[in-house]
Records
---
Amino acid sequence: MKHQLTAHGLTFLKPSHPSVKAIRKAHGDANLHGTKVWDSSFVLMDFLLIEPIPEGRVVFDIGCGWGPTTLFLAKSFQSRVLSIDADASVEPYLQLHCELNGISPLFWQRRLNQLKAADLSMADTLLGGDICFWDSLRDDWKKLIKRAQKAGVRQVLIADPGRQPFHDLTEWAKSKYQAELWEHSITSPIKASKYILEISLNPE
Ligand SMILES: C[S@@+](CC[C@H](N)C(=O)[O-])C[C@H]1O[C@@H](n2cnc3c(N)ncnc32)[C@H](O)[C@@H]1O
C-alpha cells in the first residue's frame, strides 16, 4: 500500500508503484509535468463534494495527466469526461488508472490553445488540476475562457497551489466574470491546502 493512495473509493498510484515503473520503462516519462498525481487534484475532488457538478454533465478535464479528476468525476457524478492533455505520453498512465478503477477513458491530445469554440460548445464544465503554472498557460486560459463563454460553457474550475500565473488569472477572471477564489484544505488522503478558482460563465 505504500505505492498507492485510496480516496473516494478510487485507487491512485505513486510513481514508485511497479506498474507505473513498467510504463515508464516501456514508454518513458511524461514531458510536461504529468509525472504523478498532483495534490491540487485531491483538493479539487474534496471541494467538488461540497460544490457538486450535476450528474451526467460533459466535463473537459484539461491537463488531465494521469487522470485523477477524470476518475473522480466519472465515479462520483457520472460525468461524461473528455480527458485532454498536451502531452500524448500521459495516455498510458491515464489508461492504467482507468483500468485499475473500472473506468473507460476518452483521451484527446490537445493543448489549451487548440480547443476551438466548436469543441468547447460540447462542454458544460472545463476543469483542471494544477494547469496554470506558466505565464503562457495563464494567457492561454484567458483566451480559452473567453471562447468558452461564447460557446456556452457553464463553468470553469481550476485548482492550484497558488502560483503567480494562477493568481493573475484569478484577478483577471474576477474583473470580467462572476468568479470566486476558495482556499480549501484536506487531511486525507494527503494533508494539503490549495486554491480553487470557480468561474460562472453561463449560469443556469
Ligand atoms: C502539473 S500536471 C497536472 C496533472 C493532473 N491534472 C493532476 O492533477 O495530477 C500538468 C499537466 O498539464 C499538461 N499540460 C501542460 N501544458 C498544457 C497545455 N498547454 N495544454 C494542455 N495540457 C497541458 C501536462 O502535460 C501535465 O499532464
Note: The pocket of S-adenosylmethionine is lined by residues 30, 32-34, 37-38, 40-41, 62-66, 68, 85-87, 90, 111-112, 129-131, 137, 140 (CB under 6 Å).
---
Amino acid sequence: MDAIKLLEWQHDEVDTLFTQYAEAEDDEEKLEVFNAIADSLSAHATIEEKLFYPAVYVGELREQLSDAIEEHMRAKRVISDLIDLEPSDPKFDKKMKVLQEEVEQHVSEEEEELFPIVKQALPKLELEALGELMEELYEDLMASNPREEIGEEAEDEAASVR
Ligand SMILES: [Fe+2]
C-alpha cells in the first residue's frame, strides 16, 4: 500500500476508536478501547518516526517534521499518564479528551499540509515501496503490545530532562 494511504487509513482507524470510546458503556470497555488506541498510536508514531519522516526529510519540510515529532512526544506523555490511571478515575476521561485533540491536530496537519507536499516530492513507486516497509514494521510492532514502550520512552525522556 502507498505510504500515505497507509497512514491515512491508520488515522481513520484511530478516529473510529475514539468514537467507540465515547460510546463505551462501562470502565472495562473504556480500558479495552484505550488499550487499542494506545497500541495503534504507538505503532503509528514509530513507523512515522523511523521510516516515513526520514524518507521525506526534504528542505522545506524540516521544521514541519520536527514539530510533528514534538507532537508525538506530547501525545506519548498523555498516553503514559493514562496507562497509570484507571478509567474509573475522573481524570481519565479528561486526559482522553486531551489525547483526542492532540491526535486530531496531528491528523489535520499531516493530511492537509504534509501529505500534499510529499505526494508532489516523491514518485509513486517510492511511496509504494516505503508503504510496504511501513506496513511490515507496523504489523511486527502490533504483535507485541507496543503501548508498553511508551511508558518507558516517557520515563527515559523525563530522566534526561532531570
Ligand atoms: Fe500520522
Note: The chain has a mean pLDDT of 91.
